[in-house]
Amino acid sequence: AKNGLESYAYSLKNTISEGKLSISDDDKQKIESKVSETISWLDNNQTATKDEYESQQKELEGVANPIISAAYGGAAGAGGAAPGGAAGGARPADEVEERPEELD
């Protein structure tokens, strides 16, 4: 959990600092602030529990994910990326189940 949180925080930091996302300065500041807060928390809580690390990751994701989702897809991302991926993932699974029956 610690490594996952640390990796996620630094990945976000690099993504934001390298300008890989087209986001507003306000959104950039929100993510940078939360990332800095998380990294500082990690430095000061080396012996935290798994639940504490997971809680920190959820907080960071709560700030970053909506901004990143909007940057990657805007309205299309909200309507197509996650739900479309889930629906798209379910349909081929159903088709895969039907195909062996058709081949038999």
Task: Please explain how this structure is put together.
By secondary structure, the chain is mostly helical. The protein has one domain: Substrate Binding Domain Of Dnak, Chain:A, Domain 2 (Up-down Bundle), CATH 1.20.1270.10. It is built from 3 helices and no strands. The chain has helices spanning 2-17, 25-44, 50-103. α1 (2-17) runs antiparallel to α2 (25-44), α1 (2-17) packs across α3 (50-103) and α2 crosses α3. The model is unreliable at 75-101 (pLDDT under 50).
Question: How would you summarize what this structure contains?
Answer:
The protein is 87% helix and 0% strand. The chain has helices at 2-17, 25-44, 50-103.
Secondary-structure element series:
HHH
According to CATH, the fold-level topology is Substrate Binding Domain Of Dnak, Chain:A, Domain 2
Derived structural class = mainly alpha
Question: How much is the average pLDDT?
Answer: 78
So, CATH architecture?
Up-down Bundle
Write the layout of secondary structure elements.
Layout: H1 2-17, H2 25-44, H3 50-103
Helix pairs in contact: 1-2, 1-3, 2-3
Organism: Aspergillus sclerotialis
Biased composition (Gly residues): 74-88
Family: Belongs to the heat shock protein 70 family.
Task: Describe this protein with a few key phrases.
mainly alpha; Substrate Binding Domain Of Dnak, Chain:A, Domain 2; Heat shock; Hsp_70_fam; ATP binding; 104 residues; HSP70_C_sf
